[in-house]
Design a protein that fits this description.
N-(1-d-carboxylethyl)-l-norvaline Dehydrogenase, domain 2, Rossmann fold, single chain, globular, 2 domains, alpha/beta
Amino acid sequence: MSRISILGAGAWGTALAAAFVRQGHHVRIWGRNARTCDEITDAHTNRAYLGDARLPDALEATPDMARALEKADIVLFVAPAQSTGEVAAQAAAHLPAAAVLIACAKGIDNRSGQMQSEVIADKLPDHSIGVLSGPSFAADVVRGLPTAVTLAMPSLADAQSLAESLSGDAIRLYASDDVTGVQVGGSLKNVMAIAVGICRGGGMGASAEAALITRGYAELSRLSVAMGARPETLMGLSGLGDLVLTCSSELSRNFAYGIAVGSGRDVSGLKLAEGVYTVTIANEIADRHKISCPIMKTADLVLSGRMSADEARMALMSRPVKAENPEAQE
């Protein structure tokens, strides 16, 4: 069994920790908030993020980075995407030399345009770095419900070995060596989920939502491939699978955020939605690659206050009629 350190005591970090403890691994969580860490260790709950879900008695959390990383074989970075660099820098002095690092946050750094593995590599260049992503809700994972995700490493053999060691009855990992594709798919689907949520909030109906998901997937795929992803990766768990899940349930923070925006509700009290921080940089990257992404562009206009939700819905439905797959006509 492995010694796993999880950096981030939010919903996803805590849920992953619970799953891996139940599979027999020794797991320790690092979190900034000492009271949350004490609650996880002593009361075996994390009510702020996971309600009354019961956590394993053996799970320990600490605000002490050195203790959290002591003798770690595997380190999962599960803090919010925009703070990954800061957490990696803080971990540098305490990280065991042979530890394998896994990026678990879904988002593009909105200052540098880097993917999460690149952010970590800048701070911790001497480590093997992979990515964990796919259709998964923390509320399901913490309860032990079946979940399948993708684990990508630069070496497929390494990914396969690690996936086998971490898989269990409740969480199954599939191996990939498309580190870029797994990350880009997981990041862009958050933006699409906000757009579909805006549609839901405006009461446009299931047919319009299905159309938006389908066209959103086309945008996601075009941009991901331009960034170096393989098309087949986008058809897998970390692309299409994650997009479908995130656009179908209000357990998704991004979808719930979009619904609130689309229905005109106040969003100031809502929990973190990574897509809000990814949308602008994603559009900048699309512009650099000369990839047309009207849904992402419209979402950015709405979230920045330059377009109303009603105007956005009208703009998307009044776009010029053209071939569904123009590449196939060439």
